[in-house]
Amino acid sequence: MSEKTIVHLLRHGEVHNPEGILYGRLPGYHLSEDGVLMAKAAAKWFAGRDVAALFSSPMERARETSEPLSETFGLPVTVEDRLTEAANRFEGMTFGVGKGSLRRPANWPSLYNPFRPSWGESYEEIASRMLEAAAGARDAARGHEAICVSHQLPIWIARRRAEQRKLWHHPTRRQCQLASVTSFVYEGTRLVAVSYAEPAAALIRRPSVPGA
């Protein structure tokens, strides 16, 4: 039988963002107090599992989410650029109709093709880099488990590609809650199953900004 390896894609915890900014790849956005608790809840959920490798997006919120995991397993955190947040032209803005960026005609040309999407990094690019990162984590932890801390949209796109679904989707229908775990199960190099869990569900008090 082929070796079984599990790669867990962990979304970071809640970010301190009282103004509701779509922060994307902007620096300076850190976990909130609840976000720190979510990271600890995720680490507790993983405790006792056979985790042999730990990777993180370079964004502060992801690296902070990885810290309790590093302490739990005594593993170094390897920063993996391919796990980073999706690029988005609306970074630094609030997103919506009201007072958000959608009411500005200058932004409308960025919305012409929601299937790509036209406002940022393409879904194909996201899927490719995320699955490459997952494969790298699989190889690093062959026969064991690996954790990759990333972001909502990249994780959701990776899952949709893994499940052979269309990449286009409605942002409000993503099953990728704060500090949630999307797990890829491999037999050898073949992806055979996908599962989902929410270790910090009890700590979630309000919806987060889509794509964060």
UniProtKB/TrEMBL annotation:
State the source organism's domain of life. Answer: Bacteria
> Pfam families this protein is in?
His_Phos_1
Enumerate the transmembrane spans: none
The protein's matches in InterPro entries, at most eight in alphabetical order, are given as:
His_Pase_superF_clade-1 (IPR013078), His_PPase_superfam (IPR029033), PGM_Phosphatase (IPR050275)
Cross-referenced PANTHER family, in alphabetical order? Answer: BROAD-SPECIFICITY PHOSPHATASE YOR283W-RELATED (PTHR48100), PHOSPHOGLYCERATE MUTASE (PTHR48100:SF51)
* Designated name of the protein: Histidine phosphatase family protein
Per the UniProt record, the source organism is: Actinomadura alba
